[in-house]
Amino acid sequence: MNDKLKKVLQEVFDLKEIDIHLTKEDITKWDSLAQMDLVTSLEREFDIILEIEDIVAISSIKSICEVLKSKGIKIDN
Amino acid sequence: MIIKDSVAIVTGGGSGLGLGIASVLLEKQAKVVVLDIDKEKLAKLSEKFIKYQVDVTNYEAVQAAIDDVVSKYERIHILVNNAGAIYNEPLINVMNRENMKHSYENFKKFLDVNLNSVFIMSSIVAEKMVLKRTKGVIINISSISANGNAGLSVYAAAKAGVNALTKTWAKELGVLGIRTVAIAPGFINTESTNKALSKEVISHIKREVPLRNLGKVEDIAHSVLYAIENEYLNGAVIEVNGGLTI
Q1: Contact assignment for B133 to A49 by CB distance below 8 Å
Q2: Which residues pair with B183 in a beta bridge?
Q3: What ipTM was estimated for this complex?
């Protein structure tokens, strides 16, 4: 997984291990405030702007990857 | 933040402080949308303002007005929550033996005007900002009375609430690029101040203010400009009061 993405996920959600199958229901720290924190961290790290449709679509590690791919970001190292 | 060509909403912009704020924004070439409940005051304003007659305590009316603004101008960059009204009544009026207690109806009414309106405007406008990912700013006009002022129970409570909302939204919305700042004026020379306070009280206030005078509308309007333009200002309650403490 992209190192920048790993760093964002670890910082925002306090995750030690990143599992692509995790959803927001699996991650204790994933609430609406963390969602906003995630959005701004992704925007800052990858120099992108996420539209509201992207933000609403993000509900799992997999969906984060899909949104980033749609912005032209390479997910695998 | 660049004010030129931004869309700015000023509530209670038909007169007094609100008009002063709306005017300086217009001078800075913003598209200035004035919301006011008073049709006659709106009619007297320059046609350079975009005018809506709206009661900002009416949720549906505010939603309709803001939907219309966005349909015409696409985005909202600046919201100035200025609409409000001072109300003077002691909790217990020992001079009115028949009815000593502060009117509960008036307490609810002026809480609606001074606090709930800020919530209504901000929730509706902030949604528009977030939907378009607009880097916006919300300016709440608070008051020195938020610290507690004898005779002003509901006004003080409402303005203390406005300060708390400012700090809360600064934390919540800041991550999305929307800043929230409050300006807390002292006693300003406006029609509403002169109506609400007697000449004796105003005289007394002037003696208490280190600068020995009431503030001017321009003093507050320029503070609003500063809060809008300074992109690192967030969550602050900026006191503009001539050094008066209460």
Answers
A1: yes
A2: B141, B238
A3: 0.75
